[in-house]
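Lab meeting prep.
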Amino acid sequence: MAAADRRRVSDIDALRTLAHPVRYRILGHLMAVGPQTASECAAVVGETPSNCSYHLRELARFGLVERVDDAPADGRERPWRSTATGWEFRAGDDTGADPVAADANRRLQHAGVDEEARIAHAAIDRMDVLDERWRDAILGQTYGLRLTADELVALGTAIDSLIRPYIGLTRHDAPADAQPVHVSLTAFRHPLP
């Protein structure tokens, strides 16, 4: 994949498919490290290669992943990749008028929060095996901002433009010692009454 390709997925069935925790983890893994076989995905997500093959086929059914090549081989040995370098998942117009779309959006958002927490906990558990440079580079900042909705959109756009040159699937000038790094940004109106 040569250029950034961010896509919006609004199909309710695709969102329901991705809300499955194993599928969500597999897609995230492919986005973080690039093409992987079902066996390689299985080692990361804690599933069997045959189970990962099944989940990869389900993701492919909705165009979220694809095989890297069409060479005949065992499905566990052919690599898969994300079909985009970034995703936005949201059914409908978010007004809540369609309860099925609202439920699909909610389930996927919860899956995303759960995966973010899982990754963060795993990173914390492995901090003592990192060298000092990587430990010192870890960011863990929280801000309480006061913004308008338009300002939040502008902030998100500005942050995205800063991050985009480092996207692993499209960065061709990465130094030899560059490693996959997980960056998460969540911003929302505080749920206080």
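Slide two material, second protein:
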Amino acid sequence: MHIHYLQHMPFENPGNIIPWAEANGHALTGTMLYENQPLPPIWRFDWLIVLGGAMNVYEHKIHPWLVKEKEFIYKTIQYGTSVLGICLGAQLISDVLGGGVTRNLHREIGWFPVSLTPHGRQSDLFHGFKNRFLAFHWHGDTFSIPPKAFQVVRGEACDNQAFQYGQRVLGLQFHLDYTKEGVETMIRNCSDELIPGPYVQSPEKMLLLNARFQKTKILLYSLLNSMARHIC
């Protein structure tokens, strides 16, 4: 299987997705949008993964490549290819499917629990997930659930944490892809976002327990395996 990812910032890479793809013998390629690299033909890959980023989906003047990226994501979905969006990636998918992206009431950065909705508990993509699990977050915006999609995960600081559109399209507001090194990199590059608030943790608390990163890696692998079964 050929997986292609869209990367928005030099320091926010696929993280835990890389070893999963390698272990399963999948080809993994990427487009560095911040370098204005060209997008590949849609027929060339089997699965599109849209990563996170510090920009907002509506900042077209600052990041003009967002316009072409949105068109590309929409055409990929219409082509029938599986698509996974993470954080900004989920917001972009919501946007192209007719949802909205707005500022969330709270900035959410750090480890906070989320819960499966009734639709999430029925989805085979979340087979093996507990009804409530811990995930890492780094976002200030939130998406609405697009038409014909279902909310599958919800949270306290941000209600809409994940949606599913059909069997092949999934948007996650939270991160299972981050490694500990990835969080350290985010802290170094985005420290200006660590404004004190009820859902903003200190760097020390974010990095305190290595076991958290291992648990989210296991959850990511389970989710990727479930999505892969709809492709292979």
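Talking points for slide two:
The helical segments are 17-23, 65-79, 88-96, 118-122, 180-189, 203-206, 210-229.
Residues 3 and 47 are 5 Å apart (CA to CA).
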